[in-house]
Amino acid sequence: MPPSNLPRQILMDILQGTRPERPLFLPIVFALGARVENTPPRDYLYNPTRICKALRQIRGYLPADGIACYFDWTVEAEALGADLHWNTVSGIPAVYWPALAGPDSSQTTFPRVEDVVQKGRIPIACEVIRRFKSASTEDRLLMAGVTGLFSIASHLAGDGAQAGQYDLSSPVFEFASSLITRIATMYVESGANAIFFVEDVLPLLSADQYEQWASLLAPASNIVRFYEALPVLLLAGANSAAAASSSLLKCEWDCLLCPNVRDLGNGIAPPLNRPAGMASPLEIFNSGEASADPMIQVKEVFSAFQPVAVTTAGDLPPSVDLKIASRVLGELRQMF
Protein backbone atom coordinates (compact mmCIF):
# COMPACT_ATOMS: atom_id res chain seq x y z
CA MET A 1 0.00 0.00 0.00
CA PRO A 2 1.55 3.33 -1.06
CA PRO A 3 2.04 5.63 1.96
CA SER A 4 -0.19 8.28 0.38
CA ASN A 5 -3.16 5.88 0.46
CA LEU A 6 -2.58 4.51 3.94
CA PRO A 7 -4.88 6.92 5.86
CA ARG A 8 -7.72 6.03 3.50
CA GLN A 9 -7.13 2.32 4.00
CA ILE A 10 -7.06 2.74 7.78
CA LEU A 11 -10.32 4.69 7.55
CA MET A 12 -11.97 1.89 5.59
CA ASP A 13 -10.77 -0.72 8.10
CA ILE A 14 -12.35 1.24 10.96
CA LEU A 15 -15.62 1.67 9.04
CA GLN A 16 -15.71 -2.08 8.45
CA GLY A 17 -15.18 -2.76 12.14
CA THR A 18 -11.72 -4.29 11.78
CA ARG A 19 -8.59 -3.20 13.61
CA PRO A 20 -6.23 -1.27 11.31
CA GLU A 21 -2.47 -1.78 11.21
CA ARG A 22 -2.09 1.44 13.19
CA PRO A 23 -4.43 4.11 14.59
CA LEU A 24 -5.57 7.08 12.57
CA PHE A 25 -3.83 10.21 13.85
CA LEU A 26 -6.29 13.11 13.53
CA PRO A 27 -5.24 16.04 15.75
CA ILE A 28 -7.51 19.07 15.42
CA VAL A 29 -5.46 22.09 14.35
CA PHE A 30 -7.60 24.83 12.84
CA ALA A 31 -7.68 28.08 14.86
CA LEU A 32 -3.88 28.11 14.87
CA GLY A 33 -4.14 29.17 11.25
CA ALA A 34 -5.05 32.71 12.34
CA ARG A 35 -1.68 32.95 14.09
CA VAL A 36 0.13 31.53 11.07
CA GLU A 37 -1.60 34.10 8.85
CA ASN A 38 -0.98 36.84 11.45
CA THR A 39 -4.59 37.91 11.18
CA PRO A 40 -7.38 38.38 13.76
CA PRO A 41 -9.53 35.25 14.22
CA ARG A 42 -12.58 37.11 12.94
CA ASP A 43 -10.90 37.85 9.60
CA TYR A 44 -9.52 34.33 9.37
CA LEU A 45 -12.79 32.49 10.05
CA TYR A 46 -14.68 34.27 7.27
CA ASN A 47 -12.02 33.96 4.56
CA PRO A 48 -11.68 30.55 2.86
CA THR A 49 -8.60 31.69 0.93
CA ARG A 50 -6.74 32.59 4.13
CA ILE A 51 -7.90 29.40 5.81
CA CYS A 52 -6.64 27.19 2.98
CA LYS A 53 -3.34 29.04 2.78
CA ALA A 54 -2.74 28.74 6.53
CA LEU A 55 -3.71 25.06 6.72
CA ARG A 56 -1.38 24.22 3.85
CA GLN A 57 1.48 25.85 5.75
CA ILE A 58 0.54 24.05 8.96
CA ARG A 59 0.33 20.76 7.09
CA GLY A 60 4.05 20.86 6.40
CA TYR A 61 4.89 21.15 10.10
CA LEU A 62 2.55 18.63 11.67
CA PRO A 63 2.62 14.82 11.46
CA ALA A 64 -1.04 13.92 10.91
CA ASP A 65 -3.39 11.83 8.82
CA GLY A 66 -5.92 14.62 8.46
CA ILE A 67 -6.49 18.29 7.72
CA ALA A 68 -8.92 20.11 10.02
CA CYS A 69 -10.76 22.05 7.31
CA TYR A 70 -13.17 23.81 9.68
CA PHE A 71 -13.58 23.49 13.46
CA ASP A 72 -15.37 26.25 15.33
CA TRP A 73 -18.13 25.74 17.86
CA THR A 74 -19.73 29.13 17.10
CA VAL A 75 -20.65 28.16 13.53
CA GLU A 76 -24.02 26.62 14.36
CA ALA A 77 -24.82 29.29 16.95
CA GLU A 78 -24.23 32.06 14.41
CA ALA A 79 -26.35 30.30 11.78
CA LEU A 80 -29.17 30.03 14.32
CA GLY A 81 -29.08 33.76 14.97
CA ALA A 82 -26.76 34.04 17.95
CA ASP A 83 -25.00 37.32 18.68
CA LEU A 84 -21.21 37.04 18.45
CA HIS A 85 -19.32 39.72 20.36
CA TRP A 86 -15.76 39.85 19.05
CA ASN A 87 -14.40 42.50 21.38
CA THR A 88 -12.57 40.05 23.61
CA VAL A 89 -8.90 39.95 24.53
CA SER A 90 -8.40 36.47 23.13
CA GLY A 91 -10.08 37.24 19.82
CA ILE A 92 -12.55 34.42 20.51
CA PRO A 93 -16.12 35.75 20.49
CA ALA A 94 -18.55 35.73 23.36
CA VAL A 95 -21.66 33.92 22.12
CA TYR A 96 -25.23 34.72 23.08
CA TRP A 97 -27.45 31.94 21.80
CA PRO A 98 -31.02 32.70 20.72
CA ALA A 99 -33.71 31.46 23.11
CA LEU A 100 -35.58 29.26 20.65
CA ALA A 101 -36.89 26.86 23.28
CA GLY A 102 -37.39 26.45 26.99
CA PRO A 103 -38.30 23.85 29.61
CA ASP A 104 -41.62 23.34 27.82
CA SER A 105 -40.78 23.55 24.13
CA SER A 106 -43.87 21.76 22.85
CA GLN A 107 -45.25 24.95 21.30
CA THR A 108 -41.94 26.27 19.98
CA THR A 109 -41.62 26.98 16.27
CA PHE A 110 -38.10 26.34 15.03
CA PRO A 111 -36.61 27.79 11.84
CA ARG A 112 -36.38 25.66 8.71
CA VAL A 113 -33.15 23.66 8.76
CA GLU A 114 -32.60 24.42 5.06
CA ASP A 115 -32.70 28.13 5.85
CA VAL A 116 -30.31 27.81 8.80
CA VAL A 117 -27.59 25.95 6.90
CA GLN A 118 -27.35 28.67 4.26
CA LYS A 119 -26.44 31.29 6.86
CA GLY A 120 -23.24 32.29 8.60
CA ARG A 121 -20.11 30.26 7.94
CA ILE A 122 -21.53 26.85 7.07
CA PRO A 123 -21.18 27.61 3.32
CA ILE A 124 -17.63 28.88 4.01
CA ALA A 125 -16.73 25.59 5.70
CA CYS A 126 -18.08 23.69 2.68
CA GLU A 127 -16.00 25.87 0.36
CA VAL A 128 -12.80 25.13 2.31
CA ILE A 129 -13.49 21.39 2.13
CA ARG A 130 -14.18 21.58 -1.62
CA ARG A 131 -10.94 23.45 -2.26
CA PHE A 132 -8.88 20.83 -0.44
CA LYS A 133 -10.84 18.08 -2.14
CA SER A 134 -9.97 19.48 -5.56
CA ALA A 135 -6.28 19.75 -4.59
CA SER A 136 -3.84 16.87 -4.23
CA THR A 137 -4.50 15.72 -0.65
CA GLU A 138 -4.55 11.93 -1.04
CA ASP A 139 -2.16 11.56 1.89
CA ARG A 140 -4.52 13.39 4.29
CA LEU A 141 -8.14 12.90 5.26
CA LEU A 142 -10.37 15.98 5.30
CA MET A 143 -11.96 16.65 8.69
CA ALA A 144 -14.73 18.98 9.86
CA GLY A 145 -16.34 19.63 13.23
CA VAL A 146 -20.04 19.91 14.07
CA THR A 147 -21.29 21.09 17.45
CA GLY A 148 -22.81 18.08 19.19
CA LEU A 149 -26.52 17.39 19.40
CA PHE A 150 -26.59 17.76 23.17
CA SER A 151 -24.59 20.97 23.14
CA ILE A 152 -26.93 22.59 20.59
CA ALA A 153 -30.11 21.41 22.29
CA SER A 154 -28.88 22.48 25.72
CA HIS A 155 -28.06 26.00 24.51
CA LEU A 156 -31.39 26.37 22.75
CA ALA A 157 -33.35 25.05 25.73
CA GLY A 158 -31.69 27.59 28.00
CA ASP A 159 -32.27 27.54 31.75
CA GLY A 160 -34.44 24.44 31.68
CA ALA A 161 -31.59 22.30 30.32
CA GLN A 162 -29.08 23.84 32.70
CA ALA A 163 -31.27 22.77 35.56
CA GLY A 164 -31.08 19.18 34.35
CA GLN A 165 -34.57 18.99 32.88
CA TYR A 166 -33.73 16.96 29.79
CA ASP A 167 -36.61 15.58 27.77
CA LEU A 168 -34.96 13.94 24.77
CA SER A 169 -38.35 13.44 23.13
CA SER A 170 -38.94 17.20 23.02
CA PRO A 171 -38.90 19.14 19.72
CA VAL A 172 -35.63 20.89 20.61
CA PHE A 173 -33.72 17.60 20.45
CA GLU A 174 -35.49 16.59 17.26
CA PHE A 175 -34.58 19.94 15.73
CA ALA A 176 -30.94 19.62 16.84
CA SER A 177 -30.81 16.12 15.33
CA SER A 178 -32.15 17.39 12.00
CA LEU A 179 -29.75 20.33 12.00
CA ILE A 180 -26.55 18.38 12.65
CA THR A 181 -27.65 15.73 10.14
CA ARG A 182 -28.05 18.37 7.43
CA ILE A 183 -24.74 20.08 8.26
CA ALA A 184 -22.89 16.75 8.29
CA THR A 185 -24.49 15.90 4.94
CA MET A 186 -23.26 19.17 3.42
CA TYR A 187 -19.74 18.54 4.70
CA VAL A 188 -19.46 15.00 3.37
CA GLU A 189 -21.04 16.01 0.07
CA SER A 190 -18.27 18.64 -0.15
CA GLY A 191 -15.65 15.92 0.33
CA ALA A 192 -15.04 15.52 4.08
CA ASN A 193 -13.70 12.11 5.18
CA ALA A 194 -14.30 12.49 8.93
CA ILE A 195 -17.00 14.38 10.82
CA PHE A 196 -16.51 15.13 14.52
CA PHE A 197 -19.64 15.68 16.61
CA VAL A 198 -18.15 17.63 19.51
CA GLU A 199 -19.70 17.55 22.99
CA ASP A 200 -17.89 19.64 25.60
CA VAL A 201 -19.97 18.89 28.68
CA LEU A 202 -22.37 16.00 29.16
CA PRO A 203 -25.09 15.58 31.79
CA LEU A 204 -25.70 12.47 33.84
CA LEU A 205 -28.46 10.56 32.07
CA SER A 206 -30.21 7.26 32.55
CA ALA A 207 -29.29 4.26 30.42
CA ASP A 208 -32.52 4.72 28.43
CA GLN A 209 -31.68 8.38 27.80
CA TYR A 210 -28.27 7.47 26.45
CA GLU A 211 -29.91 5.02 24.06
CA GLN A 212 -32.35 7.74 23.02
CA TRP A 213 -29.48 10.14 22.43
CA ALA A 214 -27.69 7.51 20.32
CA SER A 215 -30.83 7.10 18.19
CA LEU A 216 -31.03 10.88 17.67
CA LEU A 217 -27.42 10.94 16.49
CA ALA A 218 -27.84 7.87 14.27
CA PRO A 219 -29.27 9.68 11.19
CA ALA A 220 -26.23 11.97 11.01
CA SER A 221 -23.82 9.07 11.58
CA ASN A 222 -25.52 6.94 8.93
CA ILE A 223 -25.31 9.72 6.35
CA VAL A 224 -21.60 10.16 7.07
CA ARG A 225 -21.00 6.42 6.74
CA PHE A 226 -22.98 6.34 3.47
CA TYR A 227 -20.31 8.62 2.02
CA GLU A 228 -17.60 6.27 3.35
CA ALA A 229 -16.56 8.88 5.88
CA LEU A 230 -15.96 8.39 9.59
CA PRO A 231 -18.46 9.76 12.15
CA VAL A 232 -16.76 10.52 15.49
CA LEU A 233 -18.46 11.41 18.77
CA LEU A 234 -15.80 13.50 20.50
CA LEU A 235 -16.32 13.85 24.25
CA ALA A 236 -13.99 16.79 24.59
CA GLY A 237 -14.58 17.87 28.18
CA ALA A 238 -12.63 16.13 30.94
CA ASN A 239 -14.90 14.17 33.29
CA SER A 240 -17.75 14.30 30.78
CA ALA A 241 -17.76 10.53 30.38
CA ALA A 242 -16.64 9.82 33.94
CA ALA A 243 -19.93 11.05 35.36
CA ALA A 244 -21.80 8.87 32.89
CA SER A 245 -20.20 5.69 34.22
CA SER A 246 -20.63 2.68 31.96
CA SER A 247 -24.05 3.56 30.51
CA LEU A 248 -22.60 5.89 27.90
CA LEU A 249 -19.95 3.48 26.69
CA LYS A 250 -22.30 0.52 26.51
CA CYS A 251 -24.65 2.26 24.08
CA GLU A 252 -24.84 1.00 20.51
CA TRP A 253 -23.38 4.10 18.88
CA ASP A 254 -23.26 4.25 15.10
CA CYS A 255 -20.15 6.40 15.32
CA LEU A 256 -16.64 6.08 16.72
CA LEU A 257 -16.82 6.98 20.41
CA CYS A 258 -13.82 9.10 21.37
CA PRO A 259 -13.59 9.98 25.10
CA ASN A 260 -11.09 12.38 26.64
CA VAL A 261 -7.97 10.66 27.99
CA ARG A 262 -8.73 12.29 31.34
CA ASP A 263 -11.84 10.11 31.58
CA LEU A 264 -10.14 6.95 30.38
CA GLY A 265 -7.45 7.54 32.98
CA ASN A 266 -10.06 7.85 35.72
CA GLY A 267 -11.23 4.29 35.60
CA ILE A 268 -13.57 4.48 32.63
CA ALA A 269 -13.33 1.22 30.72
CA PRO A 270 -13.37 1.37 26.91
CA PRO A 271 -16.07 -0.50 24.97
CA LEU A 272 -14.96 -4.07 24.53
CA ASN A 273 -17.19 -5.08 21.63
CA ARG A 274 -16.16 -2.50 19.03
CA PRO A 275 -13.31 -0.13 18.13
CA ALA A 276 -13.07 3.24 19.86
CA GLY A 277 -10.81 6.26 19.82
CA MET A 278 -9.21 8.52 22.39
CA ALA A 279 -8.75 12.29 22.68
CA SER A 280 -5.54 13.68 24.15
CA PRO A 281 -6.10 16.59 26.57
CA LEU A 282 -5.05 20.02 25.33
CA GLU A 283 -2.91 20.47 28.46
CA ILE A 284 -0.12 18.50 26.77
CA PHE A 285 0.48 21.56 24.58
CA ASN A 286 1.26 23.81 27.53
CA SER A 287 4.88 24.89 27.32
CA GLY A 288 7.23 23.92 30.12
CA GLU A 289 7.17 21.10 32.65
CA ALA A 290 3.43 21.39 33.24
CA SER A 291 2.80 19.31 30.12
CA ALA A 292 4.81 16.31 31.33
CA ASP A 293 2.20 14.66 33.55
CA PRO A 294 -0.65 14.79 30.99
CA MET A 295 1.64 13.24 28.36
CA ILE A 296 2.54 10.39 30.72
CA GLN A 297 -1.16 9.72 31.23
CA VAL A 298 -1.77 9.81 27.47
CA LYS A 299 0.91 7.17 26.90
CA GLU A 300 -0.39 4.96 29.70
CA VAL A 301 -3.96 5.12 28.42
CA PHE A 302 -2.86 4.49 24.84
CA SER A 303 -0.94 1.40 25.87
CA ALA A 304 -3.87 -0.02 27.87
CA PHE A 305 -6.66 1.12 25.58
CA GLN A 306 -5.23 0.47 22.08
CA PRO A 307 -7.52 2.95 20.30
CA VAL A 308 -8.08 2.84 16.54
CA ALA A 309 -7.92 6.65 16.31
CA VAL A 310 -6.11 9.34 18.28
CA THR A 311 -7.21 12.97 18.22
CA THR A 312 -7.14 16.00 20.51
CA ALA A 313 -9.83 17.04 22.97
CA GLY A 314 -10.80 19.98 20.78
CA ASP A 315 -9.08 22.46 18.52
CA LEU A 316 -5.63 23.69 19.53
CA PRO A 317 -6.02 27.33 20.64
CA PRO A 318 -4.32 29.99 18.50
CA SER A 319 -2.05 30.84 21.44
CA VAL A 320 -0.15 27.55 21.01
CA ASP A 321 3.26 27.97 19.39
CA LEU A 322 3.50 26.05 16.11
CA LYS A 323 6.91 24.62 17.04
CA ILE A 324 5.54 23.33 20.34
CA ALA A 325 2.53 21.85 18.54
CA SER A 326 4.85 20.12 16.07
CA ARG A 327 7.04 18.70 18.85
CA VAL A 328 4.14 17.44 20.97
CA LEU A 329 2.25 15.94 18.04
CA GLY A 330 5.46 14.27 16.92
CA GLU A 331 5.78 12.70 20.36
CA LEU A 332 2.19 11.51 20.18
CA ARG A 333 2.74 10.04 16.74
CA GLN A 334 5.77 8.08 17.97
CA MET A 335 3.48 6.06 20.24
CA PHE A 336 2.47 4.05 17.20
Tags for this model:
alpha/beta, TIM Barrel, 5-stranded parallel sheet, single chain, 15 helices, 13% strand, 3-stranded parallel sheet, 10 strands, 336 residues
CATH architecture: Alpha-Beta Barrel
What string gives the helices and strands in order?
HEHHHEHEEHHEHHHEHEHEHEHEH
What's the total helix number? 15
Total domain modules: 1
Percent helix among the residues? 40-55%
Q: Do you know the CATH topology?
A: TIM Barrel
Q: Quick one: how many beta strands?
A: 10
List the strand order in the largest sheet.
2-5-6-7-8
Would you tell me the overall average pLDDT? 85
Description of the structure:
The protein is of the alpha/beta class and about 325 residues long. The chain has a single domain (about 5-335), classed as TIM Barrel (Alpha-Beta Barrel). Helix content is about 45%, strand content about 15%. It has 15 helices and ten strands. The chain has helices spanning about 5-15, 30-35, 40-45, 50-60, 75-80, 115, 120-135, 150-155, 160, 170-190, 205-225, 245-250, 260-265, 290-305, 320-335; strands at about 25, 65-70, 85, 95, 140-145, 195-200, 230-235, 255-260, 275-280, 310. It has a five-stranded parallel β-sheet. Helix 8 (about 150-155) packs across helix 10 (about 170-190).
Concise synopsis of the structure shown:
With 336 residues, the chain is α/β, with parallel strands linked by helices. It is built from 15 helices and ten strands.
Tell me the layout of helices and strands:
Layout: H1 6-15, E1 24-26, H2 32-37, H3 41-45, H4 48-59, E2 66-70, H5 74-79, E3 83-85, E4 94-96, H6 113-116, H7 122-134, E5 141-147, H8 149-157, H9 159-162, H10 171-190, E6 194-199, H11 207-226, E7 230-235, H12 245-250, E8 256-259, H13 261-264, E9 277-280, H14 292-305, E10 309-312, H15 322-333
Parallel strand pairs: 1-10, 2-5, 5-6, 6-7, 7-8, 9-10
Antiparallel strand pairs: 3-4
Helix pairs in contact: 4-7, 7-10, 8-10, 10-11
